[in-house]
Amino acid sequence: MLSRFAHLRALSRSRVLTTRANGSSRILSSNERSASTSPISHELPVDSLPRFPTLSTPGGLRALDYVGTLSFAHTGALLAATSGMDALGTCVVGTITAVGGGTIRDAVILNARPFWTEEPEYLYLCLLASGLTFAMWPREKEDNSALHFVTDSAGVAAFAVIGAQNGVRAGVPAIVSVVCGMATATFGGAVRDVLCNRKVRILHSHAEVYATTAAMGAISYLGMRRMGAGVRARVGTGLVVAFAGRCFAWRYGTRLPVWQSRSETA
Length: 266
Hints:
- It is a multi-pass membrane protein.
- This is Glycine transporter domain-containing protein.
- The protein is mostly helical.
- It has one domain (about 55-250).
- The protein contains ten helices and two strands; from the N terminus they run H-E-E-H-H-H-H-H-H-H-H-H.
- The longest helix is centred in the first third of the chain and has 26 residues, at about 55-80.
- The N and C termini lie far apart (about 100 Å).
- The model is unreliable at about 5-40 (pLDDT under 50).
């Protein structure tokens, strides 16, 4: 009797596979068991990115993400060096400018581990850009070049779309996904301004709109997703709207309404 029971138990273990999802176990169906033994699919979920740039649409978005990271780290380091910070302070501020928005998105909004703990290449990119900027600062105290504007705008657009994707994958409401997109693109710069004793740019109208264009890009991505558009269409629309909005605001000096303070009206 005992030997029969042991045989049935071993047979059951050989047939039943379990998987852990969100800390709980469930029994896999026969279809899932056959899928688990089939060759691994290299197709990514629709709202995901490959680890490194590729020739696909998600891979291209990852490449723009790298461009934005380098550009943001450069501008953050430039401002830090101009504020009188040393080499360490320059690298810290440059890194925070580039990855601070995504860190706030993950740790505060989505209650997850910051992305760079699993993708340390972002830290390497930040340190590279910040270190080179500090070394070249005497020759480049300000960067108002067209190349800088283009890379910065591309970074805002890419960060906005990627932030929205993170919100979608986390299953949060659409409005929270928009906040994720805006935070990813702009909150690092907000922390930079605080560390450098400057007015937070995205909260004042002394410069053209910035965070608003990121929110527009995130909304466009989510809107195209809601309409069932493909990956290329939804990513492309989000990028174009954010980038075009940034260019329009810069060209025409578009600002949000603001009340004048008493000191300004006196």
